[in-house]
Amino acid sequence: MLAATLDRLREGVLLCRADGSRLYTNPAAETLFRAHPLWSPGLGLALQDMLPPEALQKADAGGTWNDYVPFGEGRMLAARLSLCSEGGSHYLLLLQDPGLVRDDQDLLRRHAELNVRLTAAQEKLLQAEKMASIGQLAAGVAHEINNPIGYVHSNLGSLQEYLSSLFALIDAYERALRSPDPRAQLAEIDQTRERLDIDFISRDLPQLMTESREGIERVTRIVRDLKDFSRSDRDNSWKLADLHAGIDSTINIVWNELRYKATLEKRYGELPLVECLQSELNQVFMNLLLNAGQAIAERGVITVSTGQQGEEVWAEVADTGAGIPEEMLQRIFDPFFTTKPVGTGTGLGLSISYGIAAKHHGRIEVESKPGEGSRFRVVLPIRQPQD
Ligand SMILES: Nc1ncnc2c1ncn2[C@@H]1O[C@H](COP(=O)(O)OP(=O)(O)O)[C@@H](O)[C@H]1O
Ligand SMILES: [Mg+2]
Predict the structure, then answer these.
(1) What is the pLDDT of residues 70-108, one digit of tens each?
(2) How far apart are CA 158 and CA 138, in angstroms?
(3) What ligand is nearest to the CA atom of residue 345?
(4) Lowest CB count within 10 Å: 43, 52, 272, 289, which one?
């Protein structure tokens, strides 16, 4: 029965003596040998002639040896050599048909292709979530820019009126100077001043200028924040970075969206430079901040704190919002899990954030009490482990 089984195997089986000479060759192995340009049954090859020198040494030392051996024209055979020491030592060599190996390679190739496709899909999801959060931010930023631009515009309108009044007054003075009796004109000048409300203009104008300047400065600041934020987004490499700077530029951007609902408290500790992908971490903070804001219905507090503990640093976003029910806590990191209406939530933010923390060999911890609020803590190693 054993012989019949060996005859039917598609794998080549060779049993060899301790000196490497062949004791038994099954039909599949015979076929392989006939097809091999160098091995042929007539030559009576020993193991040493077929396998690389280290094969027998490895099998002697560790019991087995595995590798691919050349099978002519760039094809390979999978070979497994085992040392069998029961009843006097001998070797067992298993050879796998190139067809089967090719199947394996097909499998490997398909596996690699799938991996590439999966990575591309993940990349797309990451981009989708980014776009969704940026869409929300854009609305906030637009509002924030619109407001100062609005009053600077209306101030410019007033300024135009004031200027024409001032020019009218200058005209009145000129007329007075040119007249034969300037003193007689003074009464008219007084009248003009009153009519044009020059006293009010001289009080209002400096205020109007200050206010307009502040408006323009606010717009400049928002544009600078946007630039900081997008600069860090373009440069995505492992670097030693100041987490506080990253968090601050993210807060500046996100805050436009949140300031009407929440007050911000910062409790920063001392942080060393942290080895990280800063733009990806910014995306994590952005998502935690937006989630915190969305959890607050009317008014609340968002507290951002940081600190160091041993070889790790942490950054935490806490809110006084709705909180998360116990049974939901395990699901919030699942991709596409969202409790928000369509268009607001993608359900990807936390799952992507979790992935980014994991890539940094870190983690995200959550604590939440329904009705009281939630805290999300990102914990990261200061230095990435070697290799
Ligand atoms: N700070 C928070 N307070 C309350 N619930 C939260 C908070 N952060 C996340 N969640 C819950 O986790 C879910 C998933 O969050 P997330 O992955 O960012 O997706 P999304 O914000 O698009 O819904 C949210 O829909 C919400 O139910
Ligand atoms: Mg979110």
Answers:
(1) 776 667 788 999 998 776 689 999 988 666 556 667 777
(2) 30
(3) 1
(4) 43
